[in-house]
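The instructor's notes for this session suggest beginning with a concrete chain rather than abstract definitions. Hand out the sequence below and ask the class to guess, before any prediction is shown, which regions might be ordered.
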Amino acid sequence: MNDLDELIKIAMELQSIAQNGLTYTKDPFDKQRFERVREISAQMISMKTELPLEKVKGLFCNETGYQTPKIETRAAIFKENKILLVKEQDKWSLPGGWVDYNESIASNTIKEVKEEAGLDVIPLRIIAIQDRNKHNFPKFAYGIFKVFVLCYVISGSFKENDETTESGFFSLDNLPIIDENKNVYDQIKMCFDAYKNEKWEVVFD
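After discussion, reveal the predicted structure:
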């Protein structure tokens, strides 16, 4: 673990302590102390990542309640031994995104694929549930669980939208430039392995 990773880990712990403290304490002086701990954690991240402090606060210090990880889904869709990727800006990824408060893993996967790839799908099985900071780059100052879901296409076709400009199917040995924030090569390979193995067992950290 490099110095940046270690600092992020410490800042995440401070943020968690502060948020949980703000949730449960009834003492106004303790609330002030926990707010200051949260401020310090944001300053640590800002100093090391060179992100503006206000942006760090918006990403890192804007939640209430007990500190828990966020969840996102990523869909693995295959055709002729090629995997579907969608293009956002200049990089490609498996279609997916944050799980909305009123969605399940399955319904969120269906929604995200429809929005980003224009396809109607049936989620078949979970491939993996991974801790994002153990696999993806750059490291984030909060926890995220990534759920990879194998899907079957019913119908539909791609239409350019607010999020994605292109879609396509790619073989593992001919991938475009991928967005390592959303999926790294090993995660895409894992999806290929799961697709080929009917007895695949869910991978989890």
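Then share the key points. The longest strand covers residues 119-131. The chain has a mean pLDDT of 92.
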